C-alpha cells in the first residue's frame, strides 16, 4: 500500500486509573509492559509505523514528558522517531482527533489518519494490513472508516457496529468493507447474544481511518460540533508561533464539549464504512486482563511473581518483585508492586478508580509516581527516603548521559556498582570504575555519562534539606529538557 | 515478698510460624513489638523482674544470638541483665524447664522458679503480684503451682484446670489458692460452656511456680520422665567445663521424649495448686490477635498502616510500612511487611504454618530473615540486593560500635546521612561527618563507631562477588561474638 500522506495518530491522553497500582498518573496504562514484551503504546506504534509516513502521539502537557521518556528509552528507532501533539488539556476523543486532524491538515492537506488507542491489545499480521490498505482506499473516497472486530462472545462491555451493504469495490484481499448501518452502545445481555448470533455486528475497537480534512468538515457541518473543529484549527494554526497563548488555548479547549468521536461524528455521518475483521483484540479494560498472561493452576488461580498459593481458588495473584503468599482465598485479585498492594474481589475490578480517588484524598504519592522512572538515558528507582537523605539506583544505558546540571540544596554521592562512568564535576572529568565513588558538593556543575559498553549502575545517595526533583538547574541536555 | 532464691524462667525457644510474615525464624513471635510498646518477651521479663533475683531466658542455639541482640538493644537495664540458657536443641516444655531447674539447682539449691511463656500477653498489677507472692509460699511448701486465668468465654482453644479445696493458709490479699483437682485438654464447645458456667475451671496459661529441686524429684519419681531429669542434670553439670561435648549433649537431649510440663508432671502429681486470677490474658495464638490492636471502622474492618479500605467488611488490614488498599473484601486478613505480603480468610488464621512450609520448600529467605536485623549496637536494614552489590542502612546508637572486623570478598562504602562516625581503617582513625563518606577496601581491618550524641545513620554499599553475612572475620567485639 502507499504510505505517503498516511499518518498514524495514537491517542495517549488516558490516565488509566483502573490499573492502579500497576499504573500511576505519571505512568498510565499505555506504558504497562505487563502484556507482551513491549508496552501497550509501543505495540500501538508498531501496529502502524510500517504503513505510514509518520506516527503522531496525541497526549497532554502532564503526560508528555513521561511518554517521551518512555518511548525514547527504547533502542527502537521507530519509537524514538514518533512526533508528539500536546492537547491543551485532556478531553474526550473527538477534540483529541480533531486537534490531530487540524495539525496534520496544515502539514499535508491530503493527510489520511489511522487513529488508534494507545492502550489496547490487537493481533496484527496479513489481515490487519489488508484492513488498513482497504481503509485508506475508503478514506480517500471520503469514507469515515472503522475496523470492526468480529465478536467471540456476547460481551456487554463493548459498543457494537452493525454492518450494512457491502462495499466490495474497496476490498483488499481478505478485507471486505461494508457500509456501517448503525452504532450501538453497550447492550444488555439479550441484545449482545442476538448481535453475536446474527453475525452482522462487530465490536467497536476505537480504530478509525479518515482524511483529516474530511473529519473537520463533518464536525463543522453540525452546529453542536463545529466549535471542536474551529478551536482545533485555531490552536493548530498558532501553536509554535508568537501568537500562541497557552492560557487562552487551555481555556478555549477546555470550553469544548467532552464528546467521543463516535457520538460526535461516526453515529451521525451517512458515509461510514466498517471493515469486519476476525482479529484478536482486547481493550485491556481492567485488572482482570491479568488473567490472560499466565496459565491457571489446578484450582484456577493465575500467579505471576514470587510466592505460594495454598488452597486458593479462581484468583489472580500478580506481583512485580516482592513475595506474596495466599491461603484459601477465592475469586480475589491481589496486585502487588514495590510500593503498594491492592486486594479486591475479581467482580469489583471495574471499581479500582474508587480506591484511586480515596488515595488521592489522602495525598498518597503512590497514586502519582511510579517506583521506577524511565528517562531517555535509562531509569532511576527510588530506594529509600529518610529525613535529610534519599537513595536512588540510576541505570544509564551505554553511551547515554543525563543532563549537565547542578543542585542548590543537595550534595550527591555516586557509587558505581556496575559498568564505568565518566563524571564531570565543575572543571574535572573523572573516570569512575566499579566499586569507586565520586562526591558532588552542593552547587557543583556535574554530569554522569556511561562511557562504557555495558549498562552503568550507580547508587546515588542524596543528602540535603530539600530533595524534591525540581531542585535541578539544567545547563545542557541531550533531550532539550528544561528541568 | 522475698526475692532471694526466686528466679524468673522465661521459655523462649518457640519459632512462632503462625505469625509469618510479621515473625520470621530469626525473629520469632516473642520478638514482635506489635502488641504494646515493648516486644512480648520484654513484657514477659518485666512481668517478673522486680520480684526475682535474676531472670533466665531458656532458648536454643539458633535463636540465642537473635534474642540477645534483641534484648540488649533496649536501653533498659533489666533487659540487658537477663541470663541465657541454651538448650542443646528445641524440645517441648518439660525438658526446657527441667534443664533450667537443673542449672538453677546448682547455682542455688533452694531455688524457686517462676516459669512463664515469652510470647503471651498478661495484665499485671496488684493481683498479679499477690498471685506470685502466694505462689512462692506454696512452692516453698513443695507445691507445684499454676496460675489459673478466670475464663471470660467458652474458648475451645485453651486447656482448663479444675479447682479443688481451698488452700487458704497460703492466701495473699486477693490471691486465694486452691488444690488443683484436674487438668483438662482443649474441650469441645459443650464442655467449655459447662466449665465457664461452673466457675470452677480456669484457663491454663502456662505459668508455673515451683522449687527447682522439687520439679526434678517429680520427674525422677516416674520411670517415663526420669531421663528428662537425669539428662538435664548431666548437661547442667558439665556445661562450661572441659567435660562438655556439644554433640553428645545434643544427642542425649534429642533422645528425650518431647513432652509438655503439663503431661509430664502437672497432670500426674498429687501436690498441685492453682491460684485463680481474673487477669486479662491472651496466648496471642494467631494473626487474628491483630484485631485487638485498633478499633474497627464502621464496616468492622481493623486497619493499621497507610492506605484505604473501600466497602471492606470485617477484615484486618495490617501493614508495617507500605501502602495497602482494599476494595470490597470480606472476612480477610491482609498482612503486609517491607518484603512480603500474606492474604487469607480470617478463618484460616491457624493454618499460616502451611504457607511457611511451602515457602521453605522454595527456599524463600523471607521465611528466615527479618528485613530489619537488631544488633546490640543498633540495627541494620537490607535496602537492595543486586548482582555484585548490596545496600544496607546501619543505625548505630550513641557510644556503640559494631565489631572490629574485615572481609575477604567485599569492599564497603559508608556514607553518613545523620550523626557523626569514628571510622577505623587499618591504622587510620577518621571522623566522618554527615554527608561525608569513607571507603573500606577488601581486606582492610575496619570499625565504625557512633562517637556522637545522636543516632548515627549510615548507608553502606557493599560491592563484591560474595556478600553473605558469614564473610566477617571479627577481631574485637564488645559483645564477644565470634562472627
Task: Please outline what is shown here.
2 copies of one chain form a homodimer. Chain A is of the alpha+beta class.
Provide the descriptors you would attach to this structure in a database record.
483 residues; globular; Spore Coat Polysaccharide Biosynthesis Protein SpsA, Chain A; 23% helix; five-stranded mixed beta barrel; 32% strand; alpha+beta; Jelly Rolls; homodimer; six-stranded antiparallel beta sheet; 28 strands
Describe, in plain words, how this protein is organized in 3D.
Two copies of one chain form a homodimer. By secondary structure, chain A is of the alpha+beta class. The first copy, chain A, has three domains: 277 residues, Alpha-Beta Complex (Spore Coat Polysaccharide Biosynthesis Protein SpsA, Chain A), CATH 3.90.550.10; 75 residues, no CATH class; 100 residues, Jelly Rolls (Sandwich), CATH 2.60.120. In chain A, the strands form seven sheets. In chain A, strands 18-19-20-27-22-25 form a six-stranded antiparallel beta sheet. In chain A, α4 crosses α7 and α7 crosses α8. The longest helix of chain A is centred in the N-terminal third of the chain and has 15 residues. Chain A starts with 5 loop residues before the first strand and ends in a 7-residue tail after the last strand. The mean pLDDT of chain A is 94. At the A-B interface, β15, β16, β17, α11 and β19 of A face β15, β16, β17, α11 and β19 of B.
Amino acid at each position: 500500500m502507499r504510505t505517503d500522506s498516511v499518518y498514524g495518530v495514537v491517542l495517549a491522553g488516558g490516565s488509566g486509573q483502573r490499573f492502579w497500582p500497576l499504573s500511576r498518573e505519571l505512568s498510565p496504562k499505555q506504558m504497562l509492559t505487563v502484556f507482551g514484551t513491549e508496552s501497550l503504546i509501543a505495540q500501538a506504534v508498531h501496529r502502524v509505523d510500517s504503513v505510514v509516513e509518520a506516527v503522531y502521539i496525541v497526549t497532554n502537557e502532564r503526560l508528555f514528558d513521561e511518554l517521551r521518556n518512555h518511548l525514547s528509552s527504547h533502542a527502537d528507532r521507530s519509537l524514538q522517531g514518533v512526533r508528539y501533539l500536546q492537547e491543551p488539556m485532556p478531553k474526550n476523543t473527538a477534540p483529541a482527533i480533531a486537534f490531530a486532524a487540524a495539525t496534520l491538515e496544515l502539514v499535508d492537506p491530503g493527510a489520511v489518519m489511522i487513529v488508534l488507542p494507545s492502550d489496547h491489545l490487537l493481533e496484527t499480521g496479513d489481515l490487519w494490513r489488508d484492513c488498513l490498505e482497504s481503509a485508506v482506499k475508503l478514506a480517500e473516497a471520503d469514507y469515515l472508516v472503522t475496523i470492526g472486530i468480529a465478536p467471540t462472545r456476547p460481551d456487554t462491555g463493548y459498543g457494537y457496529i452493525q454492518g450494512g451493504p457491502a462495499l466490495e469495490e474497496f476490498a483488499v484481499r481478505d478485507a471486505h468493507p461494508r457500509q456501517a448501518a448503525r452504532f450501538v452502545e453497550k447492550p444488555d445481555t439479550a441484545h449482545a447474544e442476538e448481535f453475536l448470533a446474527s453475525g452482522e455486528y462487530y465490536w467497536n475497537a476505537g480504530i478509525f481511518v479518515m482524511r483529516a480534512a474530511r473529519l473537520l468538515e463533518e464536525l463543522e457541518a453540525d452546529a453542536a460540533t463545529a466549535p471542536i473543529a474551529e478551536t482545533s484549527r485555531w490552536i493548530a494554526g498558532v501553536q509554535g508561533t508568537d501568537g500562541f497563548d497557552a492560557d487562552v488555548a487551555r481555556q478555549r479547549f477546555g470550553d469544548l464539549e467532552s464528546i467521543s468521536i463516535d457520538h460526535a461524528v461516526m453515529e451521525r455521518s451517512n458515509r461510514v464504512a466498517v471493515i469486519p475483521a476476525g482479529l484478536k483484540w482486547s481493550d485491556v479494560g481492567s485488572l482482570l486482563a491479568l488473567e490472560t498472561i499466565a496459565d491457571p493452576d489446578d484450582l484456577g488461580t493465575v500467579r505471576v511473581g514470587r510466592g505460594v498459593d495454598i488452597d486458593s481458588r479462581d484468583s489472580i495473584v500478580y506481583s512485580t518483585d516482592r513475595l506474596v503468599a495466599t491461603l484459601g482465598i477465592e475469586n480475589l485479585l491481589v496486585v502487588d508492586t514495590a510500593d503498594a498492594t491492592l486486594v479486591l474481589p475479581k467482580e469489583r475490578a471495574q471499581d479500582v478508580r474508587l480506591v484511586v480517588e480515596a488515595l488521592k484524598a489522602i495525598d498518597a504519592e503512590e497514586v502519582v509516581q511510579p517506583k521506577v522512572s524511565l528517562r531517555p538515558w535509562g531509569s532511576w528507582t527510588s530506594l529509600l527516603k529518610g529525613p535529610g537523605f534519599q537513595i536512588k539506583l540510576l541505570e544509564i544505558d551505554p553511551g547515554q548521559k543525563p543532563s549537565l546540571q547542578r543542585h542548590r540544596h543537595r550534595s550527591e554521592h555516586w557509587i558505581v556498582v556496575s559498568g564505568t562512568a565518566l563524571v564531570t564535576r565543575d572543571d574535572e572529568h573523572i573516570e569512575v570504575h566499579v566499586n569507586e565513588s565520586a562526591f558532588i558538593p552542593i552547587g557543583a556543575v556535574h554530569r554522569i555519562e556511561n562511557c562504557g559498553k555495558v549498562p552503568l549502575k550507580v547508587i546515588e545517595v542524596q543528602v540535603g534539606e530539600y530533595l524534591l526533583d525540581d531542585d535541578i538547574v539544567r545547563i545542557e541536555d541531550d533531550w532539550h529538557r528544561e528541568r
